[in-house]
Amino acid sequence: MTLDETPRARTDEDDQLASLYTDLAAVDLYPLWTITRDLLTPAPRPRSVPWLWRARVLTELAERALRLVPVERGGERRVLSLGNPGLAGQPYAAGTLWGAIQCLGPGETAPAHRHTPGAIRFILSGDGVATTVDGDVCDMHPGDLVLTPSWNWHDHSSTSDGPMLWFDGLDLPMIEALDAVFFEPYPDVRQPGAEPHNRSEAEAGPGPRFVSGAVRDVLTTEHSPLLVYRWPDTDRELSRLAAESGAPLVSLEYVNPETGASVLPTMSCGMHRFVPGAKTLPVRRTGNSVFVVHRGSGWSVIDGQRFDWSAGDMFVVPSWAAVEHTSGEGADLFSISDTPVLRALGLHRELTLDAAQQVTGVFTPANLDTVSV
Question: Could you say which of 102, 125, 194, 342 has the lowest number of CB atoms within 10 Å?
Fold first, then answer.
């Protein structure tokens, strides 16, 4: 109010309007005219924020959990979930995606169960562990992608004398938002394993297991019948794409060899190879993504903030955030995204910007320097 303005006298109409709002609140009604701008925003406004978790922190805390926390029925899994600070304490990496590091010790079995959320495993380190998916024993090695689709029984068992760590990606927040979460423990601790192992690999048809870039047109409600995608195959395909294109970045998406669709109806899985000196233009996409650095180092600028990353780090790119990548030595990054759902609903959008973003800050990740390990 300026000096030449005088307070307006309160009218009877003001009192009636105040009474209306009080009565609306009392019966759990909301006047749209007061909240339209919060609901219908010009662009996506996700609650999750760009964030990064250091491999050193993840590994050290996983090792402590291995020593202190048993895997048994009840707890079911020894998992450290990525909690995005923008989600008010929820254990989710983004509004639609769960990301976590799971660890299994020598000779342990993580009990069998099934649930409606679909899951993937990207193996970080270790060997001698298998995931049994509906009776198919799938051996796991670093760099492999293993699927545990919705409502498939699965358990994890180790015959190794050392630990194994892997990245867990689930559509749990999405399924929870749809009020469609179901969970059921298996009658025994583990399923009877069938011989030979890796049946889905032997039975997989001749169709391609990857597409260059990303799936654009094929949609299905079925998951891939192939449950394991091996790192040597992925590495070979990335090398072929890089040699053919000469581009600073090549990407592939893992696909259902029978249909060419994304491996799960709710999540896509991809791998991205940066050649040394690679630099990309910023891109905006609807939908959330979680990245896991498989090898190499570099940095990403997400909505103006620089995130430096190296092998084992994990970071989140929220929906419609502008993201660009740079790698001096070269790198391979694994990713999950909710893109299949956005495509199925006709909500997928993508926009490449004309120039690099101005860096307004550098992200400082949490560390354990002040924590006793």
Answer: 194
pLDDT band per the 50, 70, 90 thresholds, residue 372 = very low
Radius of gyration in angstroms for the set of CA atoms belonging to the chain, rounded to a whole number: 24
Tokens for 245? Answer: 């294109």
Q: List Cα–Cα distances, 181 to 76, 79, 268, 335, in angstroms.
A: 17, 19, 20, 24
3-state secondary structure of 260: coil
pLDDT greater than 70 at residue 248 = yes
The answer to whether residues 352 and 297 touch, using CB atoms and an 8 Å cutoff, is no
Token digits of residue 38: 């919060």
Surface-to-core class of residue 139, CB atoms within 10 Å of its CB (0-12 exposed, 13-18 middle, 19+ buried): middle
Instruction: Provide the whole-model pTM.
Output: 0.95
Is pLDDT above 90 for 367?
no
**Pair of tokens at residue 116:** 């409606």
Which of 292-309 are b and which e, b meaning 16 or more Cβ less than 10 Å from the residue's Cβ? bbbbbbbbbbbbebebbb
Residue 85 CA, distance from chain mean position: 15
Neighbours of 96 (CB within 10 A): 25
In this structure, are residues 204 and 257 in contact, taking their beta carbons and an 8 Å threshold? yes
CA distance 268 to 246: 25
Residue 99 half-sphere exposure, CB side, CA atoms within 13 Å? 30
Element spanning 173, H or E: helix 172-177
What 3-state class would DSSP assign to 27? coil
For the record, the structure tokens of 304 come out as 């103006």
In whole angstroms, give the CA distance from residue 25 to residue 37.
Answer: 19
204 and 245 Cβ atoms separated by less than 8 Å: no
Q: How far apart are CA 253 and CA 296, in angstroms?
A: 20
> What are the tens digits of pLDDT across the range 62-86?
999 999 999 988 889 999 999 999 9
End-to-end Cα separation, the chain, in angstroms: 58
What are the angstrom distances between the C-alpha of 99 and each of 13, 79, 167?
52, 10, 7
Structure tokens given for 23: 């009565």
Q: How many whole angstroms separate alpha carbon 255 and alpha carbon 220? A: 11
